[in-house]
Amino acid sequence: ELQLLPPSPAPQSLYDLLLGEDPTERRPEIHTQLENYIAEPLCRRSLSPLDWWRAKEHRFPAVAQLARQYLAVPATAAPATLALAPRDPPTALRRAALGPEHLDHILFLHQNCDYLERLRGGGAGGRR
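^ that's the sequence the OP posted. Answer follows.
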């Protein structure tokens, strides 16, 4: 007996594979939250951004989650003794010489390495 396979989905660009589906298409409430957030008046400089988000996160839960993820201060991976050392090791000097564009590319590749390996069929990618 001959079985027909379902039609294969349209090919996706690497951009689509990395970013996935646009959540605003699936969940219109996210689009509404973004519009309301953009229309929100600016907060006073005397108000702490943390207090502002604490007061407003119920109005913009999806935006608040993004703010938590992307606006948080990144922690250092270096031990305090190394971070506060009087002389910088040679690797720190080279790292400091990286331009912001190169650093962005390196961080992007590092964050998406496992995902790209899974897409290529390279297994689970045991890092992280």
